[in-house]
């Protein structure tokens, strides 16, 4: 691993791994967003796929099962997350899945000379790389011509969240993502992370961004549990559908989360 920063990130997620899956299965918003991420990946054919930051392995295992002919590789910085994913791979006897511990900087050491026609990152691992520019260039290098990278990021300009935090009288939280270092989602457990604008992300690579969309523009972010409970389900679904309609417009760039699809 490259430096002390990654030790901190790994330790944070080792602790987070304890009840990560339990929390996830209670959160219908996260489940919706993941389905949408997966739909985006599965519109393309792929034979060799790499996931960075697979967590307990939800998507890595999913794609290893839905694409038994494909080779599925994964890297995660947290040894505990690697253990959880490996457990699932072993239990499912998935010979097409291979996971290792590390960050983007370790790809060549862990999987030497492998090139991919699909690379994806779901829920945040690229917000915790020490050098986004270098990480993106490395991903671009190992992507095969014609391949896609579907990369998702915690977004810098989440306007809805800023307004909610201001109404709650928490200006520090409202503008937290605009600082050079954002402390992550937890108010009690600091994780040094960085949030980027669309322009910053696109400037890191030479390949074209063929699609981008925002999530939780009007639909409340996944962590606004009280707001989700307060809203009637019809209203929540209305906001979710409305978001889908505006996700690819300029308004989409003000969502809580962003997906970028780069093609080489
Ligand atoms: C918020 S979790 C998301 C996990 C999984 N992708 C999911 O959708 O459930 C972020 C994951 O990325 C991993 N991660 C964070 N920074 C990373 C990095 N620089 N390189 C590799 N993995 C990283 C963490 O260990 C954690 O498992």
Task: Characterise this structure.
It is built from twelve helices and seven strands. By secondary structure, it is an alpha/beta fold. The protein has a single domain, classed as Vaccinia Virus protein VP39 (Rossmann fold). The chain has a seven-stranded mixed β-sheet. It starts with a helix and ends with a strand. Residues 9, 13, 52-55, 58, 75-78, 81, 103-104, 122-125, 128-129 line the site of S-adenosylmethionine.
Number of strands: 7
Give the SSE order as H and E letters. Answer: HHHEHEHEHEHEHHHEHHE
Distance from first to last alpha carbon? 27 Å
Rg from alpha-carbon coordinates:
18 Å
**Major β-sheet annotation:** 7 strands, mixed
SS content category = alpha/beta
CATH 4th-level superfamily: Vaccinia Virus protein VP39
Strand content: 15-25%
Low-confidence stretches: none
Name of the top-level CATH class: Alpha Beta
Small molecules bound: S-adenosylmethionine
Looking across the biggest beta sheet, what order are the strands in?
3-2-1-4-5-7-6
CATH topology-level name:
Rossmann fold
Count the DSSP helices.
12
Question: How many structural domains?
Answer: 1
Shape: globular
CATH second-level architecture: 3-Layer(aba) Sandwich
Overall mean confidence score, pLDDT: 97
Which percent range fits the helix content?
40-55%
